[in-house]
TrEMBL record:
Domain of life: Bacteria
This protein's record includes keyword Disulfide bond: no
GO molecular function (one): DNA binding
SMART domains: HTH_XRE
Alphabetized CDD domains for the sequence: HTH_XRE
SUPFAM superfamilies xref list: lambda repressor-like DNA-binding domains
Entry keyword set: Plasmid
Limits of the HTH cro/C1-type domain: 11-65
Name of this protein: Transcriptional regulator, XRE family
Amino acid sequence: MNELGLTPQDVRAARALIQWSQAELAKVADVSVSTIADFEKGLRTPIPNNLIAIRRAFESAGVQFTPAGPTIFSELSLHIMTQAGVTEMRFRYALDGAAAVQQIIATFGSAEGDGVELEPVQTASPTLKAAIDALIQQHGSAVPPLNKLKKIISSLGDNEYFLLLPEYPATTVEKLRLERYLHSLNHPEDQSADERIDDLFGLLLERYNISSPRTDQRTLIGAERDPRTCRFCGRTAAGGATFKKAAHVIPTALGNDHLKSAEECDECNGYFGCETEPSLIAMLDLQRVFLGTQGRGKNDGRPKLRFGEDILLHDGERVNIQSKSVIKDASDTFVVNLGRGAPLTPSSVYRALVKMVVSVVDEEELPHLKETIEWVRHGTHSERPLPKVASSVIPLPLNPSAQITIYTRRHSHPHLPHIVGEFRLGCYIYVFAVPFSDQDQWDLVGFFDEASFQETFKHYFQAAKWMQQDLSRQDKVVMSPRLKFVRRSS
């Protein structure tokens, strides 16, 4: 058996489930028909990349490989919006489990025949909570998401309103509208909330479109585009490009295994993985450890870092520091002077940040970013000045997975960047302007201090203290971090 656990019998059975011929499978997987035929006959095992392509072809058609063999699953996704945020509920089931899922969904609406009509406005009534308890008794072992559903509903006060949405809000504006509506349902006496929101975000929403691709579920940018075209070199398969490797928009070392791009060829993917992304990861080494960010590899993917002879790691529960240079002063403060860390190139950090934006920005903006893409992919235009990157620590829940938000200017403005990126890893946030757009008539140096920027992005300046970093250097630097631990006052 190969390392993916895919057998010739699995492939034959999966083809039979969805009634594919060998030629149809070969076309979708982008492999030769002889590769499929020889594997099914047991004559040879395809190379790993082809095995991955075969498996993904089946999975894209709804086939899942289980210990009992290939199976077709259905999936129903609902989004529950409470005052704490939006949570997705995904009910994945085989065909023989459809009745149980329908009964669960009918709790939030009315069932008629094989269909269910959902009510978007819900209340966490004692009756609803009791019904969910009863469903767990009946279907809890077969439908594990029920326990997650109970946790969400139980956290709400009796008769507190929540919204049931068929999909995640498509835009930030739509999400904000729904949040305001939910707030008005639960707090009809509070008329000032709308005024506060308008004051904080009104100008931003007027001047910028905002997008933030999902990183909590599988999201593939450009999946519908045919032919597949690399955003960074412009080549297609007909032009010699290949698209067999998984192209992560955000490096897996930063906790992302869901957000991927179908518009990044293998050659460009390899370049970023060797030339720019390692510097971004190195700059965030300490943050990754303190957050317990999970990538891939040993220690459940959590980083184990060496700084000279010193070691810093997260064991899944706490941070462990092994260092010979620990100083404790009279005020019970500990200072740890770590050795030399991994080398990084500051300009490569900036290029890696902008690469994420280029990967997900609306396709209509790409013609304006030709020089930006040349800089990201080849390092050209390096003699031109770069704006600084602003960073801060914000009081948000310590989500260890990375997120990217893109602000795209709606209309021309002499003092606002065409595109602003926001990269967040847990409570650590980085705000940067995308340089070299032909929609900007200046070099963007000092954009963060511009009065127009501060009045537009007012939410950035409410509670955070910002530090601006110059990431224009093109030579390698090595950091030797100094950690200071102060005992909390009781």
